[in-house]
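Board work, copied verbatim: Dynactin subunit 4
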Amino acid sequence: MSSSSQTEIRHIRPYVHYQCSCPDVNKSSVSLELEKEESFNVNSPRIQFSTFSISKLYFCNDCHQIRCPRCVQEEIVSYYCPNCLFEVPTASVKSERNRCARNCFQCPICQNTLSVLPSSEPQPPPSPISPTTVPAPTVSATGAPYYLSCGVCRWDSQEIGMTFEKATGLALQLQRTEDERPDVKEFDHLKDHFEKHMRLNTPSTALPSSLLSIPGMSSFSSRYGGMVSNNQQKSDDIVPYDAVAKVEIESGLVDDLVQLKDVNQITTVTQRINQLSDQPYKVERLQPQRIHLRTKRVKRCRSCRHILIKPEQKAQSTKFKIKLVALNNIPKITIASLPKLILNQRTQIVLKFSNPLDEEISVDLTLQDEINECGKVNILAPRFNITPYDGLWEYEEQDLVASKSRTASNSIGIYERRGDSTSIIVEITPLAEVEEFKFPLLVTYTSKNNENDGATTEEKTNETSSSKATSGDSVADESTRTLSFWTVLGLGPVIKTPSGITGTMVTGPRSEPSGSKGPTSRGSSSGNSNRK
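↓ predict structure ↓
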């Protein structure tokens, strides 16, 4: 591989992505069954849209499936200002043009928050005859105008001649100037012109709103509500629209921009986007904008309508009432050790599996039956267990955690057991010089089923006694839960064998698995030092 091609693929970093089987509404059940029977192709262009990192995924407890941002439905809970954290009622959001109605403004230069300051005039020095004389009141004390100032870039509204009479209600004063713009007037006139036509052609339901809350009545109104609307008079003819305001086009704008000697006098793309009304090209025409409102949203599963994310309604709170993310429900896979992948040389990588659940889980790893063109993949430990999560592991020292959790049994392919995680060894043998070596991995984990914990103890004892009398396997099946998902592991580029390097094995920081008969990394280093 040439040096130029090596520099192009340096930006490719190792990753672990999880697949989400999105329940697409447009697909039929037959097509979904056919897709399940097909093999998982990592080279398909759909992989870029169906695989995500674990930090962007959710987990539905009702469907027992991974959910991505595409298969989640959002609902707005509340509106608030990110600067003053004031909760804005939903009814006033439209009238305020989705902006804060308080003294919250954004700097047109650096997009930071502006502060309201009183204007003042330079005061004369005190007379030497009476140095203790009370100084004359400033201009602001006598009702002088106020202005907006930025503490970051030192921009103020006096540069564009914008001042305010009072320190309160600045948003209302600025909104009046915005309403006088020709584009705002034209839009309001256009909306009023077509509002009557839209009201006549919109089908109205014959049922009152109080009856629509009854289950099944919404579908009845959608079917039979159109029969009543057909008898109403419709207006298909639209009255010709006449423009009220005309926007003047600056003819000499190009000549003015050519004659500018300072590049800083021209606005950037970000500054023009923040002022969409006119998108000025000169900095002197930029105006402060009211800060946009933010929203808090509830996220639901599209299949079962189960709530996945539900934040608290208060704007000051950052807590969640419901937070079902994938990080807290499925094992997290991390590439702990990854040496360089050399062509036709066997390389050992370390995969770390972390258990977020409060009970022990057993993991089963499966590779595809199809031959990977990039190379060979061999999992030395396809089945292993992971200890339950314990919050105390995070506060104890690493050496103490390792001494408590590392097992002494001979486990082939187990690199390390530390806390609530287990690291395994995977052997990679690249057979082709590719820019990105990636392979699919099917992860199946079994955990304890806690759905029926609310049942009474008598029912549990009766069920267990009757099931034991019939068969012993049914109890294990009902008390456990098995889930599986596909992952894609990207290991970076494959390089040719460097000159001067011989051998067929490239290992990570420690090639000996934990618990094996050979010495560990610490023992081997101490043994070598004693021999020397």
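The first strand starts at residue 15 and ends at 19.
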